Amino acid sequence: MSDQSSTLHDSIDDAWMSESKQFRLLLNSVTDYAIYMLDATGHIQTWNHGGERVKGYTRDEVIGSHFSRFYEPADVEAGLPQRELDAAKQQGRYSSEGWRVRKDGSRFFASVAIDPIWSDGKLVGFAKVTRDVTDKRNAQRQLEEAQASLLQAQKLEAVGKLTLGLAHDFNNLLAVVINALDLIAIRVNDDPRVTRNVEAALRAAERGALLTRQLLTFGRGQNLVAQPLDVNRSIQDLNDLMRRSCPENVELAFDLAPNLPFVEVDKPQFEAAVLNAVVNSRDAMPSGGRIVITSALRKVADPTDTGASKKDMVCVSVADNGSGIPLEIQERVFEPFFTTKEIGKGSGLGLSQIFGFAKQSGGHATLSSTPGQGTTVVICLPLSVQHA
Question: Contact at 8 Å (CB) between 374 and 319?
Answer without folding.
Answer: yes
